[in-house]
Fold this protein.
Amino acid sequence: MKKNKVFIYSVLTCNRRKIDAWKIKQYFIKNNFIIVENPNYADIIFIITCAYSNKHSEESLKNVKKFIDYKAELIISGCLPDIDKEKLKEIFNGKIIPINNLNQIDKFFPQNKIKLNELTDANFPLENINQPILIMNLKKIFTKSNSIRRLYNSISESILKNMINEKSCCHKFMINYSNFKHFKELFQPNLSIYKNSFFIRPSWGCLGNCSYCVIKKAIGPLKSKPLKDIIFEFNKGLNQGYKNFIFDADDLGAYGIDIGINFTEMLDKITDISGDYSIHLRYVHPVWIVKYNNSFDKIIKKGKIISIGSAIQSGNPRILSLMHRFSDIDKIKKSFSIIKNANPGIYLSTECINGFPTETFEEFNDTLTAIKEINFDWGFIFPFSSRPKSEAENINPKVSDKKITIRMKYAFQYLKKIDYNCGFFKNHNILVFSKTNSVLKLNKETRAFCFSTIE
């Protein structure tokens, strides 16, 4: 009997969706499908899409159009179908699987003996594996001997630094190259994506109601894993020899509210487990940092949690209120200060929005001041993206693209003056910043964590 061949591809997706992709891959493997690296050889093409911003939606739609032309049957999942439903319908009327109910995959494959809900959650993100043959061959050439490898590593470090320089030709080439993630691996092997990292997803969905965000339409409300399942996964990772654990969820700090437990209770139980390991926390809304501040202090002092990602989005109370986010910026600053005092070596990262509707230059400057005062180690500043059917779409006046670009340039210079390395990714108009001699000096597992989102 012929075995169907499956090609799985994710379009600029977050790690939660890449974890979904890994689980989908295991589903097909366990049901005797063959995973292929080239869509030309596939009977089924399975795309995980993203619709985080207008740029991400456009890229997802572009890839749908591209894969429609292949002979294989196309199946689409991810956030795009629920967020840009009308645009997707204009070009595609085939099979769609909602990201908040992946178990619907079984209705398209009723012959499969193993159902998706019988599989445990995945602990690794699935990276796209269709690397250009040139890159794979170069890797083989440059890693054959120790002397060549040393030269390769030396050159790669230089190229990485050049890449971060926004004026360099290398940087322009990198950001416009469709397989940029693979070039990161080629030129800086120590920044390989999540090498030796074990992912744990404590929950799905979100409790927030941010006025600019439409992701909740796709991911749905909060749904937490039982604590015993998280402890089981953590011990499984330890038993397999992993020392680097990444806790990642759509609204990580909200964990447990729906099942009668809370985020810090979970962390307290996990960090009481003995062993040589480090934990990274991703996407902890500042409201949970403030709410659980006293508990956080005690847990951080254990030394197991070495980095926390928390998107402040703005440093201005009025803008935060318009965003429907926790708006007491002074409490946010104080809470991060307590964390830093509990462990001065902890790495804090953030994300901010430039140009939210009605935001003045002075209010944007409050965001830069917050970055400085909290002393974030690295982060991103994104341009505001007006998403369809979001509340922010109807907030006026909008900040023009020209003003957003001017502010990005100002932020670039501001952050450089206070000892940050800065890079500007023109294809998405994103500013990335990191403390000088901070991120690049971390161990390789932590560096992989920090740079993973630059795609």
